[in-house]
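I'd like us to work through together how a protein chain folds, taking it slowly. We need material for that, and I hope you will provide a protein of your own picking. Go ahead whenever you are ready, and we will take it from there:
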Amino acid sequence: MTGVENPQTVSPQDTPQQSPRQRPPHFDTFPHPENFQPNYYQHGYGSVNPLNTFVSTAPPAFQALQRSVVDMPVPGTRLAPKRFRGSHNKVHRFIKHLEALFAQNNVTQSQDKCESITQYCSSNECSFIEALPSYSERSWTGLKDDLLRFYDADLAKQRYQLRDLRQFIKESKKSTKIRNLSKWKKYCRQFIRIGGFLLSHGKITSDEHAAYFWQGIPKDL
């Protein structure tokens, strides 16, 4: 056609060839991302993805040092002290349990100790404790002394007297009939509750403790 030039035919040989892009070694051995399934068994993880599982590798001693007041047990849980309701024969055990938890969780500040105790008390006891000057001053030593004094902790040391043991022996010797092992164990528990208390508080000697034990056993055993 007039005025139109025919395009020249270019052969493939005349086209400049580009050098192939250099690919990293073993590129062809990598699976396609859509088909990639990591083999955790090969690396010793079993079927668990290690990226989704955090396991602390710190030594147990170091993990214990990382504890703080925030690690104190939640009230009502297994490791928490039973709620203190003002009983004079439980205040010693309550404070002892708290101090064991303080040591376990590295609670060393007096302020943290004072503020932690109220969560394990009834509402009435909590109101009383918060009104004490020792609590306002956040003095743990002073607060312990106040609790033992105001809740008559000394009464727990006067739970039994020697007359209580003698009365138990008299009644046991007359009325108790030990016919089987269950009755024998019951007698032992009742005697230890009174006699063991007096022995541990130095009100009777070990020889007197043994003598009273045998005196309480019925003759027909």
The chain has nine helices and no strands. Residues 181-200 form the longest helix (20 residues).
